[in-house]
Write a structure and sequence with these properties.
Strand content: under 5%
Largest sheet: 2 strands, antiparallel
Structural class: mainly alpha
Radius of gyration: 22 Å
Strand order of the largest sheet: 1-2
Order of helices and strands: HHHHHHHHEEHHHHHHHHHHHH
Helix content: over 70%
Number of helices: 20
Length: 508
Amino acid sequence: MKHIARSTLIVAVFFGLDKLLGFGRQILIARQFGLSYEIDVFNAANNIPDLLSALISGGALGVALIPVLSEYLEGRGRPAAWDLFSHIVNLAFLVTAGLSIVIVIFARPLVSFKYGIAPGFPPAQQTLTAELMRLDLAAILIFSISGLVMAGLQANQHFLLPAMAPGLYNLGQIFGLIILAPLKGLNLGVFTLPAFGLGIHGLVYGVILGSLLHLGIQMPGLIKYGFRWAPVINLRDPGVKQVLKLLGPRVLTMFFLYLFFYVRDNLASGLGEGAVTALNYGWFIMQVPETLIGTAIGITLLPTLAEQFARGETEVFRHTLNHALRTILALTLPAATLLAVGLPPFIEVVFGFDPLEASMVVWASRAYLLGLIGHSLLEVAARSFYARQDARTPLYAAALNALAYIFVAISLSRSLGPTGIALANSIVFTSEALLLLYLLNRRLPGLLQLGGTLRRVVLVSAVGALLVFSLMRLPVIPSLPLAAGSLTLVGVLLLPFIWPEVNLLLKM
């Protein structure tokens, strides 16, 4: 098995375990909190801390760091690369700490302001949102280091421990849910788990614990590759300047990306109890296949594309990227159509929602699934520009995308409610992916020669969706086993028709 395929498989397997744990976490949350204001508050409180984390470490800085570290490893060796890493991680931690203090002071107005996170929440929920936001910042300080450790290990072409880290993060949250949050301990036969009765605060403490586990699991990787920390920050260092040069556009790009979550919750907070959480569940459901396919391929592809660009291998770069795009199309289109048809029994039975709550989550999920292909393609398209050390083009595309989303989401939310907000997300992210691919194709002619992949996959996805729809109408069999069986059977039947693209991935 080739390097990218092997690395993608490692990442996908552990991301799959992470999503399985995440799925269990979401079930526990749904059964403990339902679609209540309490869990609405928890979801909304994460917005600004998550934005801070994305801008400083795991998102913006991590992606900006990988191409430069890859270049250092290729040309100067590991000691020089780790020296640069120390400068960057120290800077990230101090900046995160400073901004966290500002957020702690201004948390309440950041929530209740007309254009804040959740102006539609009642006053008591706004106060709780500000309180949970302040607690979340402890986890973000840890992630300011942990996110960059992921980038450092990935630049060394090590993907195992970074892929395991999100699962450990989920385990911390699950501990918060089953031990810290409940009033009554979970009964496991003759043994009853302890319960601390902290409610929604217990879930936040679980997030902090998860962030510590996220960092801890990766430390052996740093030791393996000979990392030595140095308490220095030198903004005049050429490598630091190179990272910061890439970081500026990337920070703005990530800001525009996280603007979607802010606008989503701002609009949804005025649509009644449960709207914020229904959108959060819908987003999570779409993110399961998106992470296993688009994110897994994008993460493992970036260091290789960066190395190919550094060596001037333009044709190899185009060839690698073309195969990645064809693989993503072949995997995401069937996944989106089959899930959209077979989803309702899982939402109704597994999550334990009443019919009205289940309907809200199902339609939000279907609207997000329409954008599964676009989100997955964007993972690779944006990283292709970063691999070429071009951070400006994704920035301009993200800015245009964010502006369009504001208008589309406001318009569709008025007529379709939460579903309209999710649909707006799918429309604009797919448009952004297509724009970036068009621009890449101009620089790399022939990139979008898909070899009949798109026509074939559209046809088999439509036939597969029709088969699932028909099988789920069979009488007598309970809805959940019927849906699971139908999706499994049709997925296996479709596999031969997408095997050429799966084979491309194996040889990539």
